[in-house]
## 1
Amino acid sequence: MSKVTIMDHPLIIHKISLIRDKKTGSKEFRELVKEIAMLMCYEATRDLPLKEIEIETPICSTKTKVVSGKTLALIPILRAGLGMVDGMLSLIPSAKVGHIGLYRDPETFKAVKYFCKLPKDIEKRDIIVLDPMLATGSSAISAITFLKEEGCAGSIKLMCLCAAPEGVKAMQEAHPDVDIFVGALDEKLNDHKYIVPGLGDAGDRIFGTK
Ligand code: URA
């Protein structure tokens, strides 16, 4: 079974409280999402492999460590996942970014794919899928199923700001190999499959479309 890591850092908890507030406007919302993604990136990359290198400091030569290989890909699920990309790239600027566009059919609540552009060597890369809201899990599950069908053989992690227990359970059942990094684990889904208490429609709040 996959590991679920729920963020317990006070700064992440604080910033998630701010984005929950309906009075927080789009500009501030976007900045906070970027900052939360950056802080969560630190947790989600904790297991990156290191290699030893030799360098010269101004004082002497020394052996030291750097991240080995540059093999990460970030895959935001359009459109809300875009809000998390800049924060992630500020810590891992060499990551390649692919995009998967999915929308939620309002009647069936199922994810429908309408766009996909992935780095050409995606099958060799370790992947972090970005989706701020893990509600039913349907979008993230479909995106990850698709990535596996494309031959992705590296590790796949999912990062979301806010999750419902229903979404976490569905994701763990569908993809038990995918570790999940959650900013906050909320109570439940409502009848419209929105997360309660949640923060509303993440895409609308990031892009100011409502
Ligand atoms: N997508 C959102 O943006 N918010 C939710 O609460 C659920 C799905």
## 2
Amino acid sequence: MNFPRGRELVLGVGAGIAAYKSADLLRRLQDRGFLVTVVPTPNSLNFVGKATWEALSGRKAQSELWENVSDVPHVSLGDKANLILVAPATADLIARIAHGRADDLLTNTILSTTAPIVIVPAMHPKMWLNPATVKNVQTLRDRGVFVMDPAIGRLTGSDSGVGRFPDSSAIIDFVEESYGYCADLLGARVLVTAGGTREAIDPVRFIGNRSSGKQGWAIANQAAMRGAQVTLVLGPNSLPKIEGIETVEIESAAEMRDEILARFDDIDVLVMSAAVADARPVSVSDEKIKKEMLGSLLLEENQDLLAEFAAKKRTNQVIAGFAAETESNHEALVSAAKSKLARKGADLIYVNDVSSGKVFGSDMTSGAIITREGKIIPIEEVSKEMLADTLLDQIRERVSHG
Ligand code: CTP
């Protein structure tokens, strides 16, 4: 099954003693890039209170339908979620979900969502093996819900058997496997530049370009989804904020350079997708320049940031550049990109085919990824999100072998 991939996760907590272990699970999920909203059942609050969930998640933890009614939480939570994980799930909670009950916020959310659902049961073996529970679990599995088998081992009392809440790492493996999610950039520090820069002429005018920043935004978003620690250095834009990453807004190429420089020693990956203005006025006038004088405006070339940082890079850093070329045939496009890659000293480059006004502002992109070893990956009319993932696949290979 192919899931839509996203980072928004609802963690449903049932009223089992294993609820306390879910506090660790929550942390591990956050480490892997998930953005978690906790929905504890009302009875589970006897084991772990809302204060714990709110402090750890940094978000409101709601149990009942009757709070924040104007937000319609039983629908909005399910709509926003890319994945629902119920851990621990008691026999009672499993029964309620299997029967389509909606008697608290969690079961309402589960009933109204179209997101994939993963359930992690934890209970006494007698309850797990009871024919009622066995039937309910089968019903859920038949409906496409992923139900993990509980671990075997010591239980709350003196006895042991099947029903133990699995370790956080085993749960995360199960979640990622069922969900098709992979935090393969876990812990990598990635800096992405995006958008165009503006080079001031006077207080009202600037030199700029048409870059929307969408491609770099998609790379930052996908890298965060894959567990990377991301900084997005972004020119003027109208893009939504990406939660859980550092966004630094800049205007000029010089400001962009300062922000990269301040972080360069600490990053593993630099993706220069920004359309850095090639030139800036030699001097910026404090007053608006009269139009008759604009013809005598003197420009000087901006420093090439990609080339500068590629020259400074450590062997275990990966630098990706972008090129926008207008050659209409593939061979000419690739050959222009190859010489740009060599000239700038990057590890790989994505060359956009921008012939006849394509790409700028669009959600689609075509071109090729070229590596310094000469590997060519042709890209034909894909979403910028898809290109981001393909590019990150190439980057990941280099990070792990660096
Ligand atoms: N770039 C940069 N600093 C600049 C100009 C460009 O870091 N002052 C980076 C861009 O972020 C991109 C790459 O260089 O990753 C290619 O940019 P492009 O404008 O295609 O290359 P130019 O060097 O400007 O070459 P030309 O315009 O002559 O093709």
